[in-house]
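re: that chain from earlier
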Amino acid sequence: MSLSEIRKEISKQKNPAQAINLQRFFKTGKGEYGEGDVFYGIKVPVQRIIAKQFKDLPLEDLKILVTSKVHEERLVAAFILVDQYKKGDEKKKKIIFDFYLKNRKGINNWDLVDLSAPKIVGAHLIDKEKDLLYKFARSKDLWEKRISIISTYAFIREHFFEDTLNISGILLNDKHDLIHKAVGWMLREIGNRDLETEVEFLKKHYKTMPRTMLRYAIEKFPESKRIKYLKGLI
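^ sequence. v structure.
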């Protein structure tokens, strides 16, 4: 299937009213994190269906999609890359990983990162050196920083927490709300598997970490315990 066909299929699903809502939700206004992003207003399950239909689209076409100004074209491309990575042999996985990193400028909103980085970057680095994630954690680029922490979800699922904790430490003083949420979410995921490890990290940092980060991290705690953390009484 060709690039023109997938673009036609995506365009057929346009919903202008929904697009307006999504442009607000994903902060596309001037000075906001998604400034200039264009939405067609297509729901994620529909995009997943399109991605499955075009799962064998070649990388030269995916490159055009992942650099598109249209959010849904980039997300469909990300879904296809995830599928190709999952089903590929080691050589193909390396090709997809390298392609993803080379074209990461198109992975430039939180949903794009969250739905692809753990399944490509995290999955690829799980048994390899992880210097890249530490480099991204210290980047000035918002999305590289989010990739750095969200990619570790793949490690958390394997009950390996060290890199998540280290990168969380690097990002503790970050100023952006989307990083606060991402770190808090990953800490919560650690707690879902090993509460003692999360609590140990929180004891060291909960009084100084951003409030949003703390709220996300303790979301599943009993109400009485959450109140104590928020009041600094632990």
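The chain has a mean pLDDT of 97.
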